[in-house]
Amino acid sequence: MVAAEDPQSARSQALAFISQNQIHKRFKLPATADHGELSVTYADVGVTPGTDASDVDTPTLLYIPGQFSTRYVSIYFHHIAAKIGVRVLVIDRPGMGDSTPVPIEQRVSVWIETVRALTSHLSIKHIALASHSAGTIYLFNTLFHCREVLHPQRPYAAAVAPWIDPLHSRLPVMQLAQLLPKQAFSYWDKTSRFFVLNSAPMVVSSGAFLHKARKLLPGSNNEPPFADRNRRKIEEEYGLAADVHAEIEKCSLPKIFGEPVVGVNSETLICLKKCSPEAWGKCWDYSKFVNEFAERERQRSLERGEEQSQLGTSSESKGKLKIQAYFAESDLMIGKKGQTYFEECWDGKDKEFQELWDFDTATVKDTNHESILSAVDVLEGIFQEVKASFQQG
After folding, report:
1. Which pLDDT tens digit goes with each residue over 134-174?
2. Residue 224's pLDDT band (boundaries 50, 70, 90)?
3. Is pLDDT of 206 > 80?
4. Which end of the chain is more exposed for a tag (fewer CB within 10 A), N or C?
């Protein structure tokens, strides 16, 4: 007979945490002329809003994860967000978790519908935005189509290790991946599941070699010194024991790949641009997207100025968008050329966009494309900005 596991063991605590209801929420997206009723799974972690009317505008962040990430990425956010006082939503995109798959060309439009429907469903007035890697595509489309859901006085968005078209990152391994036939990615979900659950080495869609399957998850493919420092800081400042933290990372992969991940196939094709421009929504070309978005922001700025003039008020900073980008020190998916391209897009020629938004970047020491997502300093910075954006409203 197998002895019962100690409920106080690190593994038991990790499994209990991962199984919490707040990580396994769902709702239905109503049918439209383009699709039937769709299921959506999501996590709602961090601070829990109260029922008092004063809590209606709880600082809330919509975090848009990368290609292989699902709502389970929220396990890295909960303790930090809860202490800082921020609510964090993480939505499974179509084909991930129990979110209903949709054709590749509908992924962005369904995402936009989902953002609007979920914020309405949860009675959320305003949100801040953040993304990691492939989530950048959905971040940009949310900024463009759902600008009104950002806080009106201090709107905020952050991009962590933003995905860059291989044309601009110029990484040979990424460009080689683009040469593979589309059919090679038709069963990418099944291939990934097999290698992950059997702990074998594998190559992800970026072409980056992962020596252990657990390296698909943020925080778990760090070099030990960084991982240890990260866990120690979380233990000391946010109360999550380091051994429990390590078990949470270890237990997450079987949970993620125990659910459908067929959406990875479409996400990979999108990242490698083996799809129509429609699959990227408004941002097939980042430079053109930023310029088009800038025109919208100019119009918003003019309208805001007229309103302030009529009200007899003036505050140049209120209502101005703040955008931050965090880059890994060593990033095999986007490289330094990709970082430079992204920065140049948002800075514009001769800082031409500085009157429209505040844009700043940071390169995070000792991190890579995956580990930067769980870096405490990055999460603290984002969550503190979110809280400040709501408090200064």
Report:
1. 999 999 999 999 999 999 999 999 999 999 999 999 999 88
2. low
3. no
4. N
pLDDT of the residue at 4: 62
State the average pLDDT over residues 208-234: 60
Picking from 346, 348, 381, the residue whose alpha carbon sits closest to that of residue 362 is 381
pTM comes to 0.90
Q: Does domain 10-391 have CATH number 3.90.180.10?
A: no
Query: Where are the domains positioned within the chain?
Result: 10-391
Q: Report, as an integer, the average pLDDT of 35-61.
A: 85
Does position 385 have pLDDT exceeding 90, yes or no? yes
Give ∠ CA 233-239-245 in degrees, rounded to 5.
Answer: 70
Question: For the sheet containing 38-46, what is the strand order?
Answer: 25-29, 38-46, 87-91, 60-64, 128-132, 156-160, 321-330, 357-368
Question: Of 70, 99, 82, which Cα lies nearest the Cα of 252?
Answer: 70
